[in-house]
Amino acid sequence: MKKVTLLTIFAALMMISSAAVAQTTASGTLSVTATVNGSIQLVFNSDAAGVALTGGGTNTATLAFGNVSAFGAIGAGIVRSTTANTFTVSSAVDVQVSKTNSASANYTLNAQLGTADAVNTWSVGGVAVTSAAQSTLTATGAYAANTNFPVAITVPFTTASGTSISNTINYVATAN
Amino acid sequence: MLSKHKSIRNLALMALLCMAFSGAANAQNPTASGVINANLVNKNGISIQFDTNSSGVTLGAAGTSAATANFGAVSAFGPLSGGVTRPSVTAANYTVRTIFDVQVVQGGLASLTYTLTANLAAAAPIGLSYKVDAVTLSTASQTIQTNGGYNTDIAHNLDLVVSTAAPGAGGPAVGTPITTVINFTATAN
């Protein structure tokens, strides 16, 4: 009889202990879905040898040559050459294309003038650039590296002093 | 003596008749009554539900404990769906983020707060890792919050960290939806 009583007390104590330890919980599930796509990005960086860009490190930069002339003083980072009736100013400009989630080995880079320029001649990386069509600057661009594509403008001597020359060059990099 | 007995008998008969008539009169509006003893045991408990946050993607099955969050198409540089942001892009990986709400309701408890834990239902797909409030998830339970307040939506960041590597080179599969289930558990403190 004594044994039975002790066992009963022990069982009761166990139940109380278990109730005290039990925790109140609630569970839920959140299913997360995403579709990863490959992508590439183009940014302009200032080249150490060229004019410092405004907006470097982005894909919308500005290259300001400042005042240029055929024979006078010229700004830092500008390379000048002259012919009998024109002069050309150029600046090194780095282009960097990065890729993600892609097995592409290289990229093709094209450029095109935003608006036609019937007076001056434009080139990028030694390739003439107009507004008529895209010009291919390279078909084997290396990713994740700065590549210098100098921007050059050839100005006739007939251009009036104080004339402002401005245009937009649109670049398009395409993963190969 | 016999006369006395007769008198008593008559009185008794009269009393019985009176009682009988009186009962018949009362029986015109019969009534019945009963008592039921109802018992209930108020069990304490808590529940969890996921709600759409106004800054995040719209959850599927919002308001339930089994919701879905779809980031849509994600990439390091391309456009993202509404409610998805891209807080960081590095050479090695990029993070896309959305925000969702968790609401835990309790009843019958003296508990003031709850602890929220989470774990992945299965190992993360190659090239992806998942974070809730900056806690990187694995299949083991991780504590997200230790002092969650009841009966209110609490916002949590859900980050998807994507390797920039190409598929087959440590990066995730591309162009196909990848789904991972995150288990959440709220425990009353």
What features would you describe in this structure?
The complex is a heterodimer of chains A (176) and B (189). Helix content of chain A is 11%, strand content 42%. By secondary structure, chain A is mostly beta strands. In chain A, the strands form 3 sheets. Chain A has a 5-stranded antiparallel beta sheet, with no helix packed on it. In chain A, strands 2-5-10 form a 3-stranded antiparallel beta sheet, with no helix packed on it. The longest helix of chain A is centred in the first third of the chain and has 20 residues, at 2-21. Chain A is elongated and about 95 Å long. The relative contact order of chain A is 0.19. The model of chain B has no long low-confidence stretch (mean pLDDT 89). Chain B contains 1 helix and 10 strands, in the order αββββββββββ. In chain B, strand 3 (85-89) and strand 4 (93-107) form a beta hairpin. Chain A binds chain B through residues 23-41, 98-103, 144, and chain B through 44-50, 59, 64-78, 91, 94, 96, 100, 102, 104, 106, 109, 111, 121, 127-128, 130, 158, 160, 162-169, 171-188. Strand 1 (25-36) of chain A pairs parallel with strand 2 of chain B.
Q: Order of strands side by side in the largest beta sheet of chain A?
A: 3-4-11-7-8
Distance between the termini of chain B: 90 Å
Count of DSSP-assigned helices of chain B = 1
Cα shape of chain B = elongated
Q: Report the strand count of chain A.
A: 12
The number of helical runs of chain A is 1
Strand content of chain B: 35-45%
How would you sum up the major sheet of chain B? 6 strands, antiparallel
Structural class of chain A: mainly beta
β-sheet strand percentage of chain A? 35-45%
Q: Note the quaternary state here.
A: heterodimer
Q: What string, H for helix and E for strand, traces the elements of chain A in order?
A: HEEEEEEEEEEEE
Amino- and carboxy-terminal Cα gap of chain A:
90 Å
Largest sheet of chain A: 5 strands, antiparallel
Coarse shape of chain A: elongated
Roughly what percent helix of chain B? 10-25%
Rg of chain B over CA atoms, rounded to whole Å, is 36 Å
Radius of gyration of chain A: 34 Å
**Helical percentage of chain A:** 10-25%
